[in-house]
TrEMBL record:
Residues 14-146 form the HTH marR-type domain. Keywords: DNA-binding, Transcription, Transcription regulation. Transmembrane segments: none annotated. It comes from Cohnella ginsengisoli. The lineage of its organism: Bacteria, Bacillati, Bacillota, Bacilli, Bacillales. This is MarR family transcriptional regulator. Pfam families: MarR (PF01047). Residues 179-200 are annotated as: Disordered. GO terms for molecular function: DNA binding; DNA-binding transcription factor activity.
Amino acid sequence: MEPLEPMDDGTADDLRLFRIWSRASRAIFSNVGRDIESHGLSPDNFMILELLYNKGPQPIQKISERLSIPSGSITYVIDKLEKKGYVERRQSQEDRRTSNAVLTDEGRALFDDIFPKHAAMISRNLSVASPDEKRALAELLKRIGLHAAALGGRAGRLLIRDILRTIICPKQFIFSGDDRRHAPLRGPEQRKRARCEPLRRPEADYPFAAVASNP
């Protein structure tokens, strides 16, 4: 067996960057996931409420496309938010065939309370970087992410909500190739993870490094 050729400096630097980036991302997403879970919300719930909180009423189909929640699942998610009293459906004045999701007073009061805390938690995670470093890093990560998405195509893109779900509900996910299934749990573990919802295959991709409140 022939010995492996030594890596060039560029490849070694790439691998080191990838390891550091992966560890940093997992640490941050773990903190974000715990924060979302502490408010009794799933990642999908949180992203929808954040979108409505920052951007106002949205057509339900647009929410599905924007947050990459499958059209077959968005009705179920909105129904759950309606039952909690956070969201209500209203017929669009522009197109009566379309229903808009609207944040209720209770939903707005919830996010008036938790969103500033959530934003502050994210800021604490990034506080070691200067404002200029954050802006430069944001642009760099956007370039890298778009390039990686183009290389991997649709199937190669990670969904932020998927990452959060695997952190919040790690024991509920079974990975088999590109298939993701929700594994049923029993007893105390089932009750503990009751807020975690089934993960269905996405019909659209959630843009890399996007945030629900962005344009």
